[in-house]
Design goal:
single chain, alpha+beta, two-stranded antiparallel sheet, 33% helix
């Protein structure tokens, strides 16, 4: 199960990195917008209705409510190994400019056994 979850995270990050390399922001990543092929466990990003190109002015916030608090991630996800906690904390940093980029996340130790990013 852990390998499958890591694989899904890796595929999501690959999709995000692809979008960003084409200067597209998805802006609505959530479980309902992920398509999973059950037979192969292949994951695809879906619903680009809120997507925008880099540089096109957008409101800072959408209608979605985001709440981030200073949680101890190890307490929230007690079975996650330290490398996973590290990656998660870098992905959830409250300052967008300090968050790990998708390409960097793909190189993180937590995902090291899942493949090489071209």
């Amino acid at each position: 199960l852990l390998f499958l979850l890591q694989s899904f995270l890796w595929q999501i990050l690959r999709g995000i990195a692809y979008c960003h390399s084409h200067r597209v922001l998805h802006r609505d990543l959530k479980p309902q917008n992920l398509l999973i092929e059950k037979r192969t466990n292949t994951l695809k990003l879906a619903d680009f209705g809120l997507a925008r190109a880099f540089g096109i002015p957008i409101r800072t916030f959408t209608q979605e409510v985001a709440y981030l608090c200073d949680n101890d991630l190890a307490a929230v996800v007690p079975t996650l190994e330290p490398a996973g906690i590290d990656l998660l904390s870098k992905m959830l940093h409250w300052e967008p400019g300090k968050r790990i980029h998708a390409r960097e996340a793909l190189q993180h130790e937590y995902l090291k056994d899942l493949g090489v990013v071209p």
